[in-house]
Amino acid sequence: MQTLTWILLCWLVSSIEGRLWNPISGSPVRKADVVVGTLSGEPVKRAITDVNGHYLVEGLPPGRYRVAAGRAGFIPTLSPTIVISKADERRQDVNLAMDTPAVITGHVFDKEGEPLEGIAVAALSRNEASGAVNVLATTRTNDMGEYRFADLMAGVYVIHTARTAAPVGEVFSPAFYPEAGEWGGASPVRVGLGGEAHEINIRVSKGELGSIAGAVSGPGPVKLTLARKSTDAVMLALMEADITAAPDGRFLFPGLASGTYVVMAEAKHLWGSAEVTVNGTEAHSDIALRPTGIILAESNAPVHAFLVRGNRYRSEASVGGAVTFRFTFSFEDITPGTWVAEVEPATPDQFVESVKWGQQEVFGRPFEIGDQPWPVLRIKISRGGTLEGKGNSVSLISESVPESGGKILEAIAGNDGRYRVRGIRPGKYRLSCSGELLEIGAGALVKRDCKP
């Protein structure tokens, strides 16, 4: 009898099946790896799509699952939560679109139009809200001077060549597409999923080899970084070199193209910088270290906060504890430069209403920290609204709140089959599953079912 029961249970176990396709071409995605896993990410069963893009995963007990799919040349995709409530349930509708990545190709030439081999090329993006510059991909030109980025997400890119000696004994100045020396002169390249941007060609200038030598005064070890002078965010993303000063403080950056550079020195609780112009010879600059600073902050509620400088420096602080009307804390090792304040409320039903640097609103926006004295960074937290209901997942798109920058709020259902979005800034939002426009107030509880 027990054996018969076991056989019946095995026969009744559920299955998930569907089809993978490319939404641009409409063709099936064959030989893709499909994984059915738990909501915590544990894989349960695997399958491979056939020539029609079809997959079938059997032998699943009742539970909550998600389907992940991937294949070389495609962007991985993940399904919403799939609820199997019966022992013999068959889900035959879990179809997933798999987009192909964006492609950017081009050549690097010298001023005479000759292709250059071995030049380093980077694809950069910039967060317009924070000002941070990110290096998303790097490659080198081949013997025909060609480069290719084949795995990019849809977006707007700036293409940049790094300082490179090619051939030996020659150095070419960095350039932004098509032949600009600074970010502001670059032409952005926009490309969509499955799209290709061709002939993004860059012309670079040959420079005379120079160097920067000097000494840094202060207790070691001292780390030095070199970047061409540009915006703070670009310099921190595109470092030319990274070295440690000798025990006596001396340092050398050789093989530099002509231009203006910034040397940044850093030791424990100390910093210094110098602007140096190189013009085919050895330039000299000594750097004196001075103490980093401390920024005091104040919040009306517990928060977790960061001060971020480019992609390199990050100061973190948290505050909580007993109920009070004011929370004070501090950020250490702060240096002058362009920073971004990132703040997260300690409780999920709240949102960041404002972050003030003096009289300037700086939440999510780059701001300049100059020489001391510095004002107190003042953070205001307020109670937000809540949206909840039945459904696998939900997205809310802001339509009336400038501070959110069109931010998309997302939530996935829990084990009870309900989703919940908390700490919503008051305003108007578009509900993705129905297209309904919702107005959500402070402390309001809005209920909407959002089934696929």
Q: How are the secondary structure elements laid out?
A:
Elements: H1 2-12, E1 14-21, E2 33-38, E3 43-48, E4 54-60, E5 63-70, E6 77-78, E7 82-84, E8 90-91, E9 96-97, E10 102-110, E11 120-126, E12 133-140, E13 146-152, E14 155-161, E15 171-172, E16 175-176, E17 189-191, E18 196-197, E19 202-204, E20 206-207, E21 210-217, E22 223-228, H2 232-237, E23 241-244, E24 250-256, E25 259-267, E26 270-278, E27 282-284, E28 287-288, E29 290-291, E30 293-299, E31 303-309, E32 313-319, E33 327-334, E34 337-345, E35 350-357, E36 360-361, E37 366-369, E38 377-383, E39 385-390, E40 393-398, E41 408-412, E42 418-424, E43 427-431, E44 437-440, E45 445-447
Parallel strand pairs: 1-8, 1-9, 10-18, 10-19, 21-27, 21-28, 30-38, 39-45
Antiparallel strand pairs: 1-4, 2-3, 2-5, 5-6, 5-7, 10-13, 11-12, 11-14, 14-16, 14-17, 15-20, 21-24, 22-23, 22-25, 25-26, 26-29, 30-33, 31-32, 31-34, 34-37, 35-36, 35-38, 39-42, 40-41, 40-43, 43-44
Number of folding domains? 5
**Percent of sequence in beta strands:** over 45%
Ranges where pLDDT stays below 50 over 5 or more residues in a row are 4-11, 402-406
In CATH terms, what is the architecture of the largest domain?
Answer: Sandwich
Helicity range: under 10%
CATH topology of the largest domain: Immunoglobulin-like
Distance between the termini: 41 Å
Q: Write down the CATH class of the largest domain.
A: Mainly Beta
**CATH superfamily (homologous) name of the largest domain:** Carboxypeptidase-like, regulatory domain
* Mean residue pLDDT: 85
What characteristic shape results from the CA principal axes?
globular
What is the overall number of helices?
A: 2
